[in-house]
Write a structure and sequence with these properties.
202 residues, 3-stranded mixed β-sheet, 49% helix, AbiEi_N, Transcriptional regulator, AbiEi antitoxin, Type IV TA system
Length: 202
């Protein structure tokens, strides 16, 4: 196969996979490392983080940090301040991407973006996960109610001021579901902590 045919085949394979592949996935599909490197040099692919490549002609990524983390760490769930930001429940600008990972699992090694993580197990890890397709990539993010419950649980990590601002914005919003919020507060074992603040607002 000529170099031109090799490159065309590689780009078609990328298209079939939504325009983005990890190095390991590309190798499984028969795309050689040198082909990836050459396509990057020619401006046909871009390397968005170590070991992750996407077609250069695709629209600019709207959530590049979330996409990068989700590709590199498929079991990670976006949580805490990062999830608050996604749901418009904070004025904070997260300095890292907060993720929840299964307890006893190894944190992902990612050069960029910086990540912060919590280890969660059982129902507290599995429940409340929403799946959003951002830039052709499935990104797992905790829903607003689960995120708020997590924020109360990890208030010492993110600051009580952040938690209370988020609760206030949630209660004032049009899509509140107090029953769901209390359900996740039970799962995260923060009902006793959350209820006084919630009762003062509703």
């Amino acid at each position: 196969m000529s170099r031109e045919q090799t490159d065309k085949s590689a780009l078609e394979t990328m298209e079939k996979h939504g325009g983005q592949l990890r190095m390991a996935e590309a190798l499984k599909e028969g795309i050689a490392r040198r082909t990836l490197y050459r396509l990057v040099d020619e401006g046909k692919l871009e390397r968005i983080t170590r070991g992750v490549y996407r077609l250069a002609h695709l629209p600019e990524i709207s959530y590049p940090d979330f996409v990068t983390v989700s590709v590199r760490a498929p079991k990670a769930v976006i949580c805490l301040v990062s999830a608050l930001s996604f749901h418009d429940l904070t004025t904070q600008v997260p300095h890292s991407v907060w993720i929840a990972i299964p307890r006893d699992s190894r944190p992902p090694r990612i050069d960029y973006p910086p990540i912060s993580w919590i280890e969660v197990s059982g129902e507290a890890y599995d429940s409340g996960v929403e799946r959003h397709f951002l830039d052709e990539t499935e990104v797992r993010i905790y829903g607003p109610e689960k995120t708020l419950a997590d924020c109360f649980k990890y208030r010492n990590k993110i600051g009580m001021d952040v938690v209370l601002e988020a609760l206030n914005l949630y209660v004032r919003g049009s899509r509140q579901d107090i029953d769901s919020l209390l359900h996740f507060a039970e799962i995260c074992r923060v009902s006793a902590v959350m209820k006084p603040y919630l009762e003062a607002l509703v």
